[in-house]
Design goal:
This protein is of the alpha+beta class. Helices cover about 35% and strands about 20% of the residues. The termini are far apart.
């Protein structure tokens, strides 16, 4: 059994729809499920029971009810004494951007390796042996940009001379439809 003042009701958009979390003055963050709270108001004192699911607390069905606050406690004093709640919800940040770029590069490298093993790299015959590494780097960068665009909607842009070494890849792009 836990109790505390309800400080915040957080709505998160997830792949299965909206999910609701309650943040209490005692620092508890409790998942409340997919349905909006009925008769639950911020600032009131509640008793509740929850089940642990890994590191997450999930409210037990029909276990939350309004309780009597301890003597001398108020929602305002509880809010100021509790640990600050972390922002929750859509948490896209710079780390996600870095992860997306890393995934695009890793996928691109694996794809270019597959092309090389299949003897299907789109390198023009006019590229000299000394410039093949630059051409392969340009191909990796080009495919990384395309994979990044497929997963995030934004292409990576490179101001790099290596892209010039490969020449125009539009013939290769025209022959494929995976990036459309």
């Amino acid at each position: 059994m836990a109790n505390g003042f309800l400080q915040q009701i957080v709505v998160k958009d997830t792949s299965v729809g909206k999910m609701y979390d309650y943040i209490f003055s005692n620092g508890d963050k409790v998942g409340a499920g997919k349905f909006p709270p009925k008769g639950i108001e911020q600032g009131k004192f509640y008793n509740d029971e929850f089940d642990m699911n890994g590191n997450f607390k999930n409210l037990r069905k029909n276990s939350m009810f309004e309780g009597k606050a301890p003597e001398g406690a108020s929602a305002a004093s509880a809010a100021s004494s509790a640990a600050p709640a972390r922002a929750v919800g859509n948490s896209y940040d710079s780390r996600q951007d870095v992860i997306s770029k890393q995934a695009a590069f890793n996928t691109s490298i694996a794809f270019v390796k597959l092309l090389a093993e299949s003897d299907a790299l789109p390198i023009a015959a006019s590229v000299k042996a000394a410039k093949k590494a630059d051409a392969i780097e340009a191909i990796v960068l080009d495919y990384a940009s395309k994979f990044h665009k497929r997963s995030t909607g934004t292409a990576l842009n490179f101001d790099d001379e290596a892209l010039a070494a490969v020449g125009d890849l539009s013939d290769v792009d025209a022959a494929t439809s995976w990036n459309e």
